[in-house]
Structures are given as structure tokens and as C-alpha cells.
Amino acid sequence: MEVTHYKDIDETVYHEKMNNGLEVVYIKKGGFNKKFVTYTTKFGSMDNDFTVDGIRHQIPDGIAHFLEHKMFEKEDGDVFNKFSQNGANANAFTSYDRTTYLFSCTENFYENLKLLMDMVETPYFTDESVKKEIGIINEEIKMYQDNPGFRVYNQLLESLYQKHPIRIDIAGTLESISEITKDTLYMCHETFYAPNNMVMVIVGDFDTEELFEFIRTHQDNRNIEVLKEITHHFEVEPKDVLESVATTPMNVSDTRLMLGFKYLESGEEDKYNEAKRDIIMMFALDMVFGAQSKYYYELMNESLIDESFNFGFSAEHTYGHTLFTSRGSNAKDVVKRILEIIEEVNTTDYFTDEMLLSQKRELLGDYLSSLDSPEYIANQYTKYLLDGNNLYQVPSIVDGITLEDVKVTFKEVLDPKYMSESLIVPYE
Amino acid sequence: MKINETTVNNIPIIDIRTDKFKTFTIRISFRNTLDEKTTTIRNILSRMMIKRTKNLRTETELVQFLAKYYGAHLTEGTTKRGDSHIVNFTLEFANERFIHEDLNIFNDLCEFLNDILTTPFEYTDEWQSFLDQEKRLHKNKLSLLLDSSMQRAYINMLNIMFKDEPNRHMSFGKIDEIDSITLEDIMKEHKKMMEEDEMVVLVVGQTTDNNIKSLEKIYSRDNYVKLPFNGFNGQVSNVINYQTDVEKIEQAKTILGFRIDKKQADMMSARIFNRMFGGGAASFLFMNLREKLSLAYQIHSELDIKNGVLFAIAGVDFNRVKETEIHVMKELEKFRNGDFTEEFLQESKNQFLSARLDAMDKPKGVIATLYGHFLAGIDFDYVDEQLSLVTKESVMNVAKHTHLDTVYTLTGGESNGSHTL
Questions:
Q1: Average confidence score pLDDT of chain B
Q2: Any idea where the Peptidase M16 C-terminal domain is (chain B) (predicted)?
């Protein structure tokens, strides 16, 4: 077992790889009542085309999410109920690249941990239960269809990307989920829920040896075949966007705009630099468009934006984009001004050392505040770990960011040549 | 965790001392009776108060000031509780212990909070454009909220169920009242809030006696203000209201509004009943309507016990609205008949305790719990004692005194005749 103490932030992390390949991380939070566990497989909505054991599988869209729903149902009933009987709250979510099962509790921890491991490791699907789930998920899809924020986002991804599976809704469509059978579910489970494709993160206040011994014994008893090599197939995503403008009418009081700038890595960045780039972009965007900037108040005073104005950057190996959201009938003017501001920033000495220092201070304050939350730690530690990084490296990454990094990255990532507008407009 | 309640400058201070957080959170709460005439004004006022002060004259200056203190977060919010309207100001910031810079963060931010409260404004005409902007922003915030079809359904439901009762008002006010608000309205309400509202300061974190001394700088009052804390007294009716509205949406949102006879049902049993009925993933509504019948993806119940109101809320297919209503009533009937196990009751009580422990791991959860205790004049021992008195019979009793009042549906399809039951 590897033990790392981060003195500056007073956090201790224990890490061990089990004999079957499962990675287990324990983060100690002294004095906390709450115990929080995430059990994550590297199987998300993007993994819809892969080869395993020499056979290529092209599976229906939305299957990772469907599988997540189905894992809670077993021959002897619903596992939600059992967690509840043990005083725990259980949940799960599926993202583009992973599925996470989690629970939190303040009592009966080991019963709940066993329940979580058994639930995730032991599939049980029948034709009948698959059919029933289609009904529930279809209502979930419809619920999102009534949500303008979700619609404007999905429409933007469909416009920015030509081939990448990120353009497909995580839940799939009624047509795609109707194709799912119990056999496809079993195959996906066997492939992606193998221990060496999974990570467990535990946050709370435990006796370390007792905790690891419990997990070791459970995992050693599984007798499972591991190490199936999975090859993912992605069509190469062109740099160009598919559509520059997409519009859908909905029952909204005012127009919603989401403006996206596509950015694909030119070569393979190393993991550390990817994490660094994410933080640099967060800083850069905030310096230009955040509440401390002059531009924010210009836009606000011109009544072009309101408090719903937001922005963010998100990137992985195979995709990347910066998004701006705004609301109001003047979407065209907002786009025009954003482009002018980007141009102005790139052609003047806009960024200053003082701004960067302020960003660094703010981030460290927010970071400390996040470390008060076991949920945040478990979820973010998992994300950083799966991306090949370490959540507790954040202060040192921040330390190393220079003004030059900010200038260069801002210019490189926001290229108006690769831009799409997604609009949700009120019915006429 | 050590809780110490004192009064400083005629203001109650609740100091919650714990070393498990890396941050401090200070909450200042102002409470007064929910009044239709002032709710919207109080929302605009609280927005203005956190954006400019007499020392930090622009929003930029204020945001930059907070950034210097490692991104301290100042927020405002309004809520409705019982018959009260509450305005909260919350400041979260890092504990100096983790920062390698010589800053007296706690003390400086207490002085800053004084600046916020005694703000703004000379209330001269030059502030008019600031007010206009905040009015525009609040209007946009409310119209954005109404873009959610579930939220529209909920507000329509309140207006039908509580026709002439003040309980129909939302804590954030009304969009059509914003335009007429003047600087003078804001000024009057500010003065009134500072003098007449019940004010409480709560702080959670690794506080020291010096920190508590700094809290004195936040504000000083001439008199100690304590206001009564009650709920609205809605009347149980024998007639059920039905209304269905049609809009272009993909999924019907249906809400069943119930009134609980508060004289007949005890509050703690009602809380436990709500958990069992529709409060979570193990509840009857979730297990039976969602998991067994696949009727809905969203289905849950919400309780406002202080006002004796319970809602069952669902997102369902257009053609299954009536079926949903029938099944919600069937689940309620099970509780009236005692058709649930002692084990499930015990689990729900344990979940209640577990949720409380869980809340004590979050600074804002600690504050919300302790503020609730302050309002009700209770402590943890009292809550434990009340919980131990909840029995199968007392839960059945709550269900028996829970009466369907209104069924509201916002649908995108044809109404399917939800007019009789």
C-alpha cells in the first residue's frame, strides 16, 4: 500500500492495486461522519464501437447508461431498497467516458460496501426487465427534451462535431435503446466491468488496515478472469464544425444562445499538461469574461447579457470545446461582441500579472472549500485518476502557470474558424 | 463540534466550533412575516446590498476585493419558511491556517460584512441605473426559472391551491411587480429590515475567541428583536380542485397537492411519513410507480410541515396522468391502512438520523440545521426524543389526516379527463 501525506493541505491518501487489478484509493477525512464511496468503470456513452477478443462490437447508443440503470435490479429485488435498509443513499451516473456507482452513509459501512461491490460485480438481466427499463428511460429522455438548457447544449454538440460520439445523447434515443437486449448487456458488463478496468475511491474516517483487508478479501474471492484487451474505435474527427448555426423553437420566454469553439489537440498531450491546460483556460476565460473583468460589465451595461451568462472549457484526448451561454433576444450582438473581445485580447497586452495572481488566489480558496466535501473529493479524485492525474497536484499545477501560458492557450483554443451557434428560440 | 449561543450588540450569535472544515462560513439571516407587498422589494434589495458598498463603489471593486481574500464567496438568497420570509447573506472563505500569506482574513471580512449591511447607497438619483440593472437581472432570473415546465406547473399549482392565501407567494417575488419598484421602496425596506427583522449571525469553522470578538464588528442594534414563528393556517376542504393546462411540451407534469390537518398530526411523524411515501429511492411512490409500474422517471413527494402541505410531483406520459393520480392515491391509502412494515418505519427513522449526520458534514448543512433549531427553540435532544415517539400508528394517523386538495397537470397532449376520482 502506498501512503502519501500532502502536508500543505493536510490530506492523506492510501492507494493499493488489488491482485485482480482493481485500483483502490482511500482518502482519510478525520472527524467526518459521512462515508462516501465511488466505484467506477471506464465505460461511458462514447464507448459504442470496440473490439474485444478479436470481435468488433458496435453497440446501441445509450447502452452504458441503460446498463447503469439495470445494475440496481437483481433476482431478489431492487438494491436501492437494500441500501436504504442499511441507512445509505445510493446513486449512479453515466458520463461520456465512465459510469460511477456510489453510496454515502453514516452507519453500517461494511454492509453497504459489500452491497455496492456485489451489485456492480454481479449482473442480472432478463428480457422482461430490459423491456420495462425502456419505459422508464424513455420518460427520462422526454424529461430532458423539456429542458431548454439540455436541448441547447445537445444541439451545440451535434453542430460542433461531425462524427465523434460525444454528439450523441448519453441516454441514447428511444429507437437506440429499443435495440438493447440482455445479451448485449451481459457482453458489455463482462468486457468493461472487469476489475482492471475499474477504480474504487473511498472517503471518510476509517481504520485503514481493516478497510483494505475487507476489500482485499472480497476481491480475492471473486475468481474472475481479467485483462481482456479492449480496442476502441473512433472515426477521426475533422477540425471543421458540422454546422455553424442550429436553431430549435421551444416553449421558452427568451432566446437561449450557446456558442461553441471546437478545439482538437494537434498531437497527444501528456496528462499533466492536459490538466494544466484545463486550469489555464479556466483562468483565461475568467480574466476576460468573468465578474472581475471590464468586458463583463461592458456586456452587462449594454444589456447584452444577464447573470445566466456563463462559459467553460472542456477537453479530453479526442474532443475539446469552449462554450458560452447567454439568454436574450440579441444573440447576434452577443456573438459579435464575444468575437470582438477575443480579437482585442489577442492583439493587445490584456492579461496582467495582477489578474493572474488574483485567479490563483481564488482557485486556491475554492479548492480548499471543495476539500470540505467528501462527495467532491471522491468524484474529482476519480476523474483526475482516470485522466492519469492527481487531484492533490492542483496547487502545484497552479503554481507553475505563467502569464505567457495564458496568452498562448487563449489564442490557440478560441479560433473563430471552428465555431458553432446553437439557439433555442420561443415559438412564434 | 461545540455550539455556543451568545448575544452581542443585541444580536444572537451562534458559534459552531469544529476543526473538520478548511473554511469558515458566516451566515446572517433576516426574518420577517411573508408580505406580498415587500417580498419582491426584499429580493432586489438583497441583490443590491452584495454588489456595491460605500467603500467598494463598483461591482468590479467588490469582486476584486473578495478575490484578494482567496476568492471569498458572498451570496444572498431568500427563502420562505412557515409564514416567514427570510433573507440570507452568506460569506464563505478559507481558513488562514492553510494560506501562506499574512492576511487577517476573518477580521477583515467581518468589517466588510458591516460595510455590506450598512450599505448602500446614498439613495440619490445616480443609483437609479444600478437599481434599473438589478431590476432587469431579477426579472431575467425569474423568467429563466419559468422556462422550466416543472417550475411553471409548480407555480400554477400554488396559485390554484392557495388562491387567496399568502402561501401562494414564492420567496423570490413576482415578475410583474418589479417594474414599479423605486429607490425609495428599497431605502424604506432596507431601513425596516435592519431595524425590525429578527437578525441572527451563525458562524461555522475552526473559530477562536478572537474570531468571535471580530464578529462584533458586523453590526450593532439598539434593541434585541425576536419575532414569533408560525405557519399559515390553511383549511382542509372536502372538494378537490382539478385543473389541466396544455402547452407545447414533451411530458406531462402532474402535481397532487394535499393538506395535512396540523392539529391532528404530529410534525415528526409527518416528516417520517413523507420519507416513506415519496421522500427517496426506497419510498412507496418511487418503488411502486417508477420501478414497478414504469409510470414516471421523476416521482417524489415534498413536505412543508410548518404550513401543513404535501405535494406529490411526477413527470409522466400524456396518456398516463389519470393512472398516476389513481396510483398515488393507492399508495397513500396503504399508509392510512397501515399496510407498511415496522422495519421500513425503522429504516426511515434511521435515514432521518443519517441525513442529519450527513448535514453536519457540510458547513451550510450545519448552519441550516442550527438555524432551524434556533427558530423552533429546540435542540438535538428534543429532536431525538420526538423521533423516538414516532410509531406505526402515528404515521398512519398523519396519512389519515392528509387530504387531497388540488390536482394540477401541465400537459402537451390532450387532457385525458382528470375530472373525477
A1: 92
A2: 180-351
